[in-house]
Each structure stands twice: as structure tokens, then as C-alpha cells.
Specification:
six-stranded antiparallel beta barrel, alpha+beta, disordered N terminus, 15 helices
Length: 478
């Protein structure tokens, strides 16, 4: 049988021009791609994940009580008797403002009513679709924030707000109106600074109500809240050091999805990390009006870190920022090997170094199985990936109909439509290099990279048929 196979294979190699024959069955072999191509193929499957926290909070409402008003009157009378203040209304008003702004804490009481307000606090991260019908993975910490974390974010916002000139101006206007006299810049600034400290130390969180939305493409936090697709939590782990994974579901679709790797990347293996970094130092510095864009960072696997909850994080030197959390880490075949999850800064010898870590996909798979979800790239994802490959090879005529089909199927995909326009422009400019179509039976053999075993006579028959077929197609021109 072996010699028959070899002889028959040789016939087909000569006739079909194939480079190898191997018996057995299999799947198309993954093809390594440059990082830019991996990035372009992944972008429609990577989403902004936003948790909008409706937070009701309160701060003390400063007030001058009756006893302090009496003390103020007595101080003013003493100043009049000493000749420090003229005995007229305007002079007394200016003196009152000066006394209060010199020592706000000595005059204002903070035990009375509290000012209550409801604001939205945004927690931004990334995620990626693992099924065409709208399941996507992200980090658990992207979906939650403790009351202490929310308070820190609110205090940061209040502190920044009270440091702005508009707040100082509002303090000046209120005091000027209340005392019916002018207030200097220095007086208004001093009182504003004191109020900022009061708000920061006295802020209390009454309630937190989360909602979740996702969006693909460049958006700001406010745009995602207004226009994004609502999502719900299907299953969730715990933030670091727990298994920091969450599975979300959004309605609609089909969506472009990413394939998941079944292999553990080795030390030094290349990684492409895709996500939506906020370009800020932390959530406190994130501007809800600033648009974020899908970003690629590259690196490699750099060891592991044992976690107390029983899993091992994969280290990487690929750059990660706030907002990258939950985004995919991809191998050179475009398969997800993990989720960008956390940073750890280590102090040593007077300097610090930041390490980035990825949560392996096998940990995320535990949650996918728990939710009974079948994760698969799906035909739409494969179609888009093939279109990107064709476009990169300047096969614009081959890429165009694929991009058009994806654009029709996934209306929220901002990238497919752009590629349709670019493909048409390249074709119109005469830059298309799409090769002529490959006969169907040859394409099948090339796709799978092997020849099935039919036995000697079957192979000879296939070879003969191929020869006849080729001759027949050539006969009109000979």
C-alpha cells in the first residue's frame, strides 16, 4: 500500500504541481500574519466595554448657625469700638467677608443639612466577541467598583471641579450676593479651597446603580452611554487576585468574532494586545468626553505569576494602559491566548518597574463552559479575516464582496464599510492584483494541504480526470 501511495502521489504532484502529500484528514492550517494584519482583522471583534455607575452622593452643606452669627456681630462691634472698621454698612460687609474667608472653618458649621446629588461615574475597559450571537469576554473588574473606589473617583472629580476657575467664580458670586459687597480673587480662592477639602473629606455615597453598554469603533464614554448597545452580565468571576473574567451578552448580531487558541504560548512567543486605552494615568484622570480608539501594542511572553486563587498569570512586555483591561492578547495567527488584565509595579534598588499580565484563555474558558456558550469564530469572523488578508495582498476584487457581505450583516461594524470604499478606490485606480480564480477541486486540495487516501486506482482516476479536465479547458485555444 505504501509504494502504491507514493507512486500515485507522485502522479498527482506532477499533474497538479502540489508540494506534498500526506494521508489522513484535518483542518485548514493556521497562517501566521504580521501584527498589523492581526490588528486589522481583530478590530471589529474588539469592543469598548463601559460600566456607567449611577451614583447618589452627598456632601455637608456649610452654614453659619445662630451662635456663630452672634459671635460675628460681637466681633464687628469690637472692631468698630477699636476704630478698625468704620461704622457704616459697606465697611461692616467687607469686614464680615474678610473674617469668614480668613478662617472658614471657624465660622461654618458642617452638622446641618447635606447637599445631595446623582452623578454618573464611568468605568471603561475593553472586551471581545467570542460568538456571533453577542457573547463577549472582558475582565470582572471592568464591571464593578466598590463604594470606596466610587468615592475616590467622585472626590477626584470634585477636587478637579473645585480647582477650576468656574467654581472659584461661582463662590465669589454667591458670597458677593449674600453679603452684598465685592469679593476679591484671593478671598474667593481661599474659600473655594476650604470647600474643596470639606467636600473631599465629607463626601458620602448613598447608592450605586450600574448599567453596561458596549460599542465598536472610536467613541467617548458619553457617546457609548448614549448610543452603545446595552449588555447584561451572564457570569462573572472576582477581580485580581481572583479569576478576573466576565462574560457579557448583548442582543443583535451577527458579530465578527475572534478564534480562541487551544495552545499555551511559550516563553518569548509574540503577543499582539488590542484594546481601548484611555491615555490617562488612571480612571480618575479619564475624560468622559474624550474619544478612545482601538490600539495595538506588541510584545512577547515573559514568564508567569502564580495567583493566590489557583491560576497563573502570563507576563508580557507589551504595553498596557487603563482601558486595555479585558482586551484580547493574540498570537501571530490571530488567535486569542488571553485577556489583558492587570499591572504590577515593583520597587527595587531605588527604581520601579511595571509588569503587565494576561489572564490565560483557558481560565476564561471555564466561564464560557459554565454559561453553556459555544465560543467559535463563526463564518462572519472568518470572512472578515479573509477579506483583510486579500486586501493586504492587494487582491481588492476578492476582498470587496467579502467586506460588502460583512457590512450588510454587521451594521454596527465601522470598519467593513471603510474597507468597501478603499477597495473600490483601489480597483478604480487600477491597483488590483487579484489572481484568476483557482479551479474548485484544486482549491479544496490547497486549502487542506493534503490528499485523502482513495487507494491506488482511485488516485490514478483522480489524476487522469485532472489531466483530462485541464486538456479540455485548454482545447479551445489550441
Amino acid at each position: 500500500m505504501g509504494s502504491h501511495w507514493t507512486s500515485a502521489c507522485a502522479v498527482l504532484l506532477v499533474v497538479l504541481g502540489l508540494g506534498a502529500c500526506a494521508p489522513g484528514q484535518g483542518q485548514p492550517t493556521p497562517v501566521e500574519r504580521p501584527p498589523t494584519q492581526v490588528f486589522e482583522a481583530a478590530k471589529p471583534a474588539v469592543a469598548i466595554v463601559e460600566t456607567a455607575l449611577g451614583v447618589t452622593w452627598s456632601v455637608p452643606q456649610p452654614d453659619i448657625d445662630q451662635s456663630k452669627q452672634t459671635q460675628l456681630q460681637n466681633r464687628l462691634l469690637a472692631m468698630i469700638r477699636s476704630g478698625a472698621v468704620a461704622p457704616n454698612q459697606e465697611a461692616l460687609r467687607r469686614a464680615s467677608v474678610q473674617l469668614i474667608t480668613d478662617d472658614p472653618g471657624g465660622w461654618f458649621s458642617l452638622t446641618g443639612q447635606r447637599y445631595q446629588h446623582t452623578d454618573t461615574v464611568y468605568v471603561m475597559g475593553s472586551g471581545f466577541f467570542v460568538s456571533q450571537d453577542g457573547y463577549l469576554l472582558t475582565n470582572a473588574h471592568v464591571l464593578t467598583a466598590s463604594p470606596d473606589e466610587v468615592k475616590r473617583l467622585l472626590v477626584s472629580g470634585v477636587t478637579k471641579g473645585t480647582a477650576e476657575q468656574a467654581f472659584v467664580q461661582s463662590v465669589r458670586d454667591e458670597v458677593s450676593k449674600g453679603f452684598e459687597t465685592d469679593v476679591s480673587d484671593a478671598q474667593a480662592q481661599k474659600l473655594a479651597n476650604w470647600l474643596a477639602d470639606v467636600y473631599a473629606s465629607g463626601l458620602q455615597v448613598a447608592s450605586i446603580t450600574p448599567s453596561y453598554r458596549i460599542a465598536v469603533g472610536s467613541h467617548s464614554a458619553k457617546e457609548v452611554e448614549a448610543q452603545g448597545m446595552p449588555a447584561r452580565v451572564v457570569v462573572s468571576g472576582q477581580p485580581i487576585p481572583g479569576k478576573d473574567v466576565a462574560l457579557l451578552k448583548t442582543d443583535g448580531g451577527p458579530f465578527v468574532t475572534l478564534p480562541l487558541s487551544t495552545e499555551v504560548p511559550k516563553q518569548g512567543a509574540h503577543l499582539d494586545v488590542v484594546g481601548y486605552p484611555c491615555g490617562c494615568n488612571g480612571q480618575e484622570d479619564a475624560d468622559p468626553g474624550r474619544q478612545v480608539v482601538a490600539t495595538l501594542t506588541q510584545g512577547s511572553v515573559q514568564g508567569e505569576l502564580a495567583m493566590s486563587s489557583g491560576w497563573r498569570a502570563t507576563g508580557t512586555d507589551a504595553k498596557m494602559e487603563h482601558g486595555n483591561s479585558g482586551g484580547p492578547a493574540l498570537d501571530s495567527y490571530g488567535r486569542v491566548v488571553g485577556l489583558a488584565t492587570f499591572q504590577d509595579t515593583v520597587e527595587a534598588r531605588g527604581s520601579s518597574r511595571t509588569y503587565n499580565f494576561v489572564l490565560p484563555i483557558d481560565v476564561a474558558n471555564e466561564f464560557i463552559r459554565q454559561a453553556h456558550v459555544k465560543a467559535a469564530q463563526g463564518p462572519l469572523g472568518r470572512q472578515y479575516s479573509q477579506a483583510v488578508s486579500d486586501f493586504s495582498a492587494e487582491h481588492y476584487r476578492a476582498a470587496l464582496p467579502l467586506f460588502q457581505e460583512v457590512a450588510r450583516a454587521d451594521a454596527r461594524n465601522p470598519y467593513a464599510g471603510e474597507y468597501v470604499v478603499r477597495s473600490r478606490a483601489a480597483i478604480a485606480a487600477g491597483r488590483d492584483k487579484t489572481p484568476p480564480p483557482t479551479p474548485g477541486y484544486l482549491q479544496w486540495l490547497l486549502d487542506y494541504g493534503y490528499l485523502p487516501v482513495f487507494g491506488l486506482w482511485g488516485l490514478v482516476a483522480v489524476g487522469t480526470g485532472a489531466v483530462v479536465g485541464i486538456r479540455r479547458r485548454r482545447s479551445p485555444s489550441t
